[in-house]
């Protein structure tokens, strides 16, 4: 059984690509609680510990496959096995981590889900989820280089991302968390010219350029949070804080989103929900600020970890 980790680091302290595998990663049993970090390493499903990565297919003798996306179809069975998983723990390079749910069948985005962001965007506060999609082809891992669309205004939006673990259909709000496999950090990169080009504005295309959906650095199971409804999240560009809030400020909480979305669309294992961003985006600033070549964007959620994106100019049209 993997050993227990040392004390956690505070969000925001990781040093970027190549930081040492340490006390953020664990798979252990503490009394009746199961603590699991599920990762995607070079396209293979792994459990991440304070020592290294356990390859799930090899450790389970083929009981579970190597595809990180497929594990959500057997989530309850997998987490029961992972609680006592034994296997060779190999050191790994964090730069090889991919998205925890790399190929969801459905990828939901929720707009204007923090009151301060709705205010800075010039929109009223919605009483129902403002839903769009980030097409799954834009989803990437936690540490990436992103090409900026030429002539665009590319903005940042740190978000908590929920991954569905069991199918949800007409789920009550009280049962919402039961259908969530875990949480990861997300960045809803958005090219505002494309987003606002039509009337009324349409969000999906401007938010689905290649690399515009970083997620990770791994999936943290709900059991590990003292209060999964109240987590600090934030972002910084080149070391300057841009966003900072708490998920307790969500207008529509994660369990409420599961209930409202599943009343219309069947939520499938491995689907992802980008739950919304707080104030501090570039569009809402005076003067406005857009991501530029050479910028480094760091996004974090308390108790999960960080994303790091570096930006480069795209070829001229």
Q: Helical segment tally?
A: 5
What is the total domain count? 2
Oligomer: single chain
The average pLDDT score comes to 88
Tell me, what is the CATH class of the largest domain? Answer: Alpha Beta
* Largest beta-sheet details: 12 strands, mixed
Distance between the termini: 54 Å
**Structural class per helix/strand content?**
mainly beta
Radius of gyration: 19 Å
SSE string, helices as H and strands as E: EEEEHHEEHEEEEEEEHEEEHEEE
Low-pLDDT stretches:
1-35
Shape: globular
The second-level CATH architecture of the largest domain is Alpha-Beta Complex
Instruction: Give the DSSP E fraction (strand runs of 2 or more residues).
Output: 25-35%
Question: Which terms summarize this structure?
Answer:
317 residues, mainly beta, Fumarylacetoacetate hydrolase, domain 2, 2 domains, 5 helices, disordered N terminus
Describe the structure.
The protein is mainly β. It has two domains: 27-96, no CATH class; 107-313, Fumarylacetoacetase-like, C-terminal domain (Fumarylacetoacetate hydrolase, domain 2). The chain is built from five helices and 19 strands. The chain has helices spanning 56-59, 75-82, 115-121, 192-195, 254-262, and strands at 27-30, 33-41, 44-48, 53-55, 89-90, 107-111, 130-133, 139-140, 143-148, 154-155, 158-164, 180-187, 190-191, 213-221, 232-237, 240-246, 272-274, 296-301, 305-313. Strands 1, 2, 3, 4, 5, 6, 7, 8, 11, 12, 14 and 17 form a twelve-stranded mixed β-sheet that branches. A five-stranded mixed β-sheet has the order 9-19-18-15-16, with no helix packed on it. It has a two-stranded antiparallel sheet with strand order 10-13. Strand 1 and strand 2 (33-41) form a beta hairpin. The radius of gyration is 19 Å and the shape is globular. It starts with 26 loop residues before the first strand and ends with a strand.
């Amino acid at each position: 059984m993997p050993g227990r980790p040392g004390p956690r680091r505070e969000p925001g302290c990781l040093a970027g690509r190549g930081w040492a595998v340490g006390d953020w990663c664990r798979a252990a049993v503490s009394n009746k609680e199961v603590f699991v970090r599920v990762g995607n390493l070079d396209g293979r499903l792994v459990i991440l510990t304070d020592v290294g990565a356990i390859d799930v297919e090899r450790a389970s003798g083929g009981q579970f496959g190597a595809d990180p996306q497929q594990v959500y179809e057997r989530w309850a069975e997998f987490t029961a096995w992972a609680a006592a998983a034994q296997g060779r723990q190999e050191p790994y390079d964090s730069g090889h981590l991919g998205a925890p749910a790399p190929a969801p069948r459905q990828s939901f985005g929720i707009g204007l889900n923090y009151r301060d962001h709705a205010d800075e965007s010039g929109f009223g506060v919605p009483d129902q989820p403002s839903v769009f999609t980030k097409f799954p082809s834009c989803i990437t891992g936690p540490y990436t280089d992103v090409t900026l669309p030429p002539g665009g205004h590319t903005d940042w939006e740190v978000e908590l991302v929920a991954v569905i673990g069991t199918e949800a259909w007409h789920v009550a709000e009280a049962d919402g968390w039961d259908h969530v496999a875990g949480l990861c950090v997300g960045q809803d990169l958005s090219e505002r010219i494309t987003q606002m080009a039509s009337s009324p504005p349409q969000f999906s295309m401007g938010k689905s350029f290649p690399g515009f959906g970083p997620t990770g650095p791994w999936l943290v199971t709900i059991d590990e949070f003292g209060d999964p409804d109240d987590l600090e999240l934030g972002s910084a560009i080149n070391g300057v804080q841009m966003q900072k809030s708490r998920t307790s400020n969500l207008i529509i909480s994660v369990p409420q989103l599961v209930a409202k979305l599943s009343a219309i669309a069947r939520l499938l294992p491995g689907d992802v929900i980008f739950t919304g961003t707080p104030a501090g985006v570039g569009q809402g600033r005076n003067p406005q600020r857009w991501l530029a070549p050479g910028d480094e964007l760091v996004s974090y959620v308390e108790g999960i970890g960080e994303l790091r994106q570096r930006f480069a100019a795209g070829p001229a049209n």
